[in-house]
Specification:
The structure holds two protein chains of two kinds. Chain A is an alpha/beta fold. Chain A is about 35% helix and about 25% strand. In chain A, helix 3 runs parallel beside helix 5 and helix 5 packs parallel to helix 6. Chain A starts with a strand and ends with a strand. In chain B, strand 6, helix 5 and strand 7 form a beta-alpha-beta unit. In chain B, the strands form two sheets. In chain B, strands 3-4-8-6-7-5 form a six-stranded mixed β-sheet. A four-stranded antiparallel β-sheet of chain B has the order 2-9-1-10. Chain B contains twelve helices and ten strands. In chain B, helix 2 runs antiparallel to helix 7. The longest helix of chain B is centred in the C-terminal third of the chain and has 44 residues. The chains are: A alpha/beta, B alpha+beta.
């Protein structure tokens, strides 16, 4: 499902060169739920961004769902992100001026051939899966943090991606709401979605299938 | 996507209201400018009805500073004709009163059915000097002097206004009460727009000039006749009638002056439009640039969820086009009142074309103003945008 070979990421400025990732090699099978752990600055989020094609590796090869990423052209990457990957962010990133269902519909706007009616059906179905059918017309500011993250999860799964990338999805939530989100993610995983989750919470990592550990940009486990 | 853009604009209506209002005002101003320009262009392409090249106007009048009791012999019209025709570079000579002098300032006329109708008295040679386009009937002739009714030559627009599709020849014009009283149409010319190419199609009525009427003289000179030849006319006429004054102008000069006068409203409206559009352009660019900056996180999110740089650019431009459409629609609602309130008297074709032009200018401006902020938005890397504070 996901295969990383000799991935390197170097950030260069005129004076400084920072090695963010070095020689990362691992694979995630279809239906796996793995966690990525490491101290701050170890490259966890950078790795997630590289897997999610938000950032281009300086070297190495990525294979997503059997498709080798051999071009970093903007349109191509945008299409792959839209069709193959769903993102859940620590800070939700909901658009404040759109209500819940409109926020969830956003990924579908970039997919051709979907009617407005179909998009609405898919968004409502995704909201139903995260238990927010009764909040579709609410605006983000009218929701609790946990509810906002559930909206973000609905948005991540609405386009039915094969891979879900979660960057500290419970980082801004209390433990009860965090557990709710973890419960939804486990449920999605049981239904076949491959999940890569960045966390610094060992308790959450223990609930995933296995853990990749990073230190100073290097893979240590 | 259009519905999504409309929702974004509506949900940010407070932020968009000022921009929509600016576009509303500028749309009205651009529409007025466009309608003046389209009306002028529409008039310009119509037949003028007469030739102005190589035509001179000779004003010849008794010096008003002379004492009234001084003995100055007034030359007859025939004498002036003979004096002018003696120059071999003058092809033909005619005479007419003020209103029949092209580009003149005289407003002598009356109204028929509430429409202004201008009147000019002309000599029989006028037709040849100005190369008029006779479309029906005949021109004046010497035999008309013996008629007990007044022969009229009218323009085609006046003919259509008075008689519709009926043949106007021989028809009486009841509204014409001057001269012999009983007036009938003997001929129709295509048009006679004495104020030049930018003037409206003319309601013009020509009669034969009376023998004792004060007239100006109109001469058709050979092509290539130098302006210095005007001095010869001046000397000849002054020698013939001491105490008389002579002023000679070319119709080409008069036409150039008339052009300037006609284009002043268009120039003024154009200047106002350019200033307003300039301000709106700066405002739009500022608003878009600010939005790009304030919405960096949203742009990054959309990129992460599958939006390409091009689609982000299209979205930002699309939002501004929706805002512009609100201003344009509000402007349309106001503009449709103009004909009802008789504020602008244009044909529906001119209205439609002016509206289309004004809308094109506004939408074009929005697209152009979106270029730079749009490029900035496209350059935003999703990774950086998602961590933007």
């Amino acid at each position: 499902m996901i295969k990383l070979e000799s991935i390197e990421k170097v950030y260069r400025t005129e004076q400084v060169e920072t090695l963010a990732l070095s020689n990362i090699n691992f694979a995630v099978d279809e239906g796996e739920f793995i966690s990525v752990m490491g101290p701050s600055g170890s490259g966890k989020s950078t790795l997630l961004n590289v897997i999610g094609l938000l950032d281009e590796p300086s070297a190495g090869e990525i294979v997503l769902n059997g498709q080798a990423i051999n071009s970093y052209a903007d349109r191509y990457l945008a299409r792959i992100r839209n069709e193959e990957v769903g993102f859940i962010f620590q800070s939700f990133h909901l658009i404040a001026d759109l209500n819940v269902v409109d926020n969830v519909e956003i990924p579908l706007l970039y997919r051709r051939g979907l009617s407005g009616k179909k998009r609405r059906q898919m968004a409502l179905k995704a909201l139903d899966r995260v238990g927010l059918s009764s909040r579709v017309k609410h605006f983000p500011s009218q929701l609790s943090g946990g509810q906002q993250q559930r909206v973000a999860v609905a948005r991540a799964i609405v386009a039915q991606p094969h891979i879900l990338l979660a960057d500290e999805p419970t980082g801004n939530l209390d433990s009860q709401m965090g557990d709710e989100i973890m419960g939804i993610m486990h449920q999605l995983n049981e239904e076949g979605t491959t999940i890569v989750m960045v966390t610094h919470d060992q308790r959450l990592a223990d609930r995933t299938g296995r853990t990749v550990r990073l230190f100073d940009g290097r893979q240590v486990q | 996507m259009i519905r999504h853009l409309c929702k974004l604009v509506w949900n940010r209506k407070r932020a968009n209201a000022l921009t929509a209002f600016q576009i509303f005002i500028s749309f009205l101003i651009v529409f007025i400018t466009a309608s003046i320009a389209v009306d002028n262009a529409d008039n310009y392409r119509r037949p003028l009805g007469f030739s102005y090249e190589n035509r001179w106007v000779v004003n010849f009048w008794r010096d008003r500073e002379l004492p009234l009791d001084s003995e100055v012999e007034a030359p007859s019209r025939r004498q002036v004709y003979q004096a002018l025709e003696s120059f071999d570079w003058i092809e033909s000579v005619a005479s007419a009163d003020g209103a029949a002098i092209p580009y003149g300032s005289s407003r002598w006329g009356s109204t028929i059915d509430g429409q202004p109708v201008y009147h000019g008295a002309v000599s029989d040679e006028y037709y040849e000097v100005f190369n008029l386009d006779l479309v029906n009937g005949r021109w004046f002739s010497e035999e008309d002097a013996a008629l007990d009714w007044e022969p009229l030559v009218i323009t085609q627009p006046l003919s259509e206004a008075l008689f519709g599709r009926e043949d106007p020849i021989g028809q009486q014009v009841e509204e014409w009460k001057r001269g012999k009283g009983n007036a009938r149409v003997v001929g129709v010319v295509s048009d006679y727009r004495r104020r030049g190419e930018f003037s409206e199609p003319g309601f013009f009525l020509l009669t034969r000039v009376e023998d004792d009427a004060h007239v100006d003289f109109l001469v058709k000179v050979r092509p290539g006749t130098p302006l210095a030849a005007q001095e010869q006319i001046d000397k000849r006429l002054k020698a013939m009638a001491p105490g008389y004054r002579v002023n000679i102008t070319t119709l080409e000069e008069d036409r150039a002056s008339s052009f300037k006068l006609s284009l002043i409203p268009l120039f003024a409206a154009g200047v106002v439009s350019v200033l307003v559009l300039g301000m709106v352009a700066l405002s739009l660019s500022g608003v878009l640039w600010q939005r790009t900056t304030l919405r960096t996180e949203e742009i990054g999110l959309r990129r992460a969820l599958g939006g390409s740089a091009a689609s982000i650019y299209a979205q930002l431009t699309g939002e501004m086009l929706v805002v512009a459409s609100i201003g344009v629609i509000a402007g349309l609602l106001v503009i449709v009142q103009f004909p009802l309130l008789e504020l602008l008297d244009y044909t529906s074709g001119i209205y439609a074309l002016s509206l289309a032009l004004a809308a094109l200018v506004i939408y074009g401006l929005v697209v152009v103003c979106s270029l730079y902020p749009g490029r900035l938005a496209c350059r935003i890397r999703p990774v950086e945008a998602l961590h933007h504070e």
